[in-house]
Amino acid sequence: YVWKTEDYGQSWTKIVNGIPADDFIRAVREDPERPGLLYAASERTVYISWDDGANWQTLTMNLPVVQVSDLVVEDHDLVISTHGRAFWVMRDIDVLRQMNPGVETSDFWLFEPRDPVRRFDNTADVFYYLPSEAGQVLVEFADANGNVLSSHTSLPAADSADAEEDDASPGGGGFGGSGGGAARPSRSEGSNRFRWNMRLEGWTDFEGRIFWAAGNQGPAVVPGRYQVRLTVDGETQTQDFEIRMNPRAAAEGVTLADLQERFDLTVRIRDRVTEAHEAVLRIRSIKGQVDERLEENDNTELASLGATVNERLGEVEGEIYQVRNRSNQDPLNYPIKLNNKIAALQNLVQGPESRPTDQSYEVFEVLSSALELELEQMTLIFQQDLARLNELLRQLGLEPIDAERLIT
Prior knowledge:
- The longest helix has 41 residues, at 256-296.
- The chain has helices at residues 94-98, 101-105, 247-251, 256-296, 300-320, 338-350, 358-395; strands at residues 3-4, 13-14, 25-30, 38-42, 46-49, 57-58, 68-74, 77-82, 87-90, 109-110, 124-130, 137-143, 148-153, 190-196, 224-232, 235-243.
- The protein has three domains: 3-96, no CATH class; 100-244, Macroglobulin (MG2) domain (Immunoglobulin-like); 256-395.
- The protein is elongated and about 105 Å long.
- With 408 residues, the protein is an alpha+beta fold.
- The protein has seven helices and 16 strands.
- A hairpin with a 2-residue loop joins strand 15 and strand 16.
């Protein structure tokens, strides 16, 4: 039995509609955030009511048939104790708090995200409901001014120019990962969740790249107001949320201005690594094209010029990236190069929640200048050796080398 009083015990009403007659209730708790949202622990499972007990339904999900002795709402989680089956926790019950009759009758529904706290929450979790399987789902995150920071589509990369390639980070099925939340959002019928790691996209990468003490994590956005946009088959819904500052950092005197400086420097570092990697991709593309032309024609001068281009570009590539790396342990034997040094600096800058040290700026300038010298050398090779090679290719009736093509 479950009884309810609204007049301090003067009268009581039985509220058991939806609870089987052969089950009995051990505890009832009201949600502290939404009046009328009730949870009941029974001899077999957990029940929920959105209308102050007038109607109940099970909240079993993956819970086995077990005696639930008690339950408690702890902030954003529902915690239950069972007889012999340990404690169970249902995370993020904010979705239950936002349920209303309009959800099931809507074309789709985007729930208001809970405000994540830096260092305490690794992701901003977005929940949405689809009444049936969708053709395409697009999840975008933007700043308070509407500028898109991160975009994720359900379409495979081969089907959409905007789609991201799935990376090797943990996650999947719309649950994000550690890179840029690159796992695709789900378009399945029912409730779905997408996790954003609250970062911008990482640097441009290339196949087989091996780094020491550096991972491809994009810059962490600063605390503040943000938007999430959910577009389902051309229709869009938007919700606002706030990324809140780590209270411990604030207590230690860290300001938003400090974190903005950290963000700005990590963006500069990321962009510099991207420049280095795009140079590697261009060099490898050119070397591959040169090899193809040498196979098409056995002209002696062509072979000499082609070898010169490949050799000089290979020297630049070797200064930017450690080309001898073949396994993750190879950096123990072969010193890291410019792109790895710059990338490792990003990890150091993003580690503490504070303004970057003066030394971080100095190291970045030193490494950035060294990279610029290599990029200038690459440009010089393009203007001299590659130009002569392309002129000879035209004379021989062969296709010139495309210096702008990147290996994908």
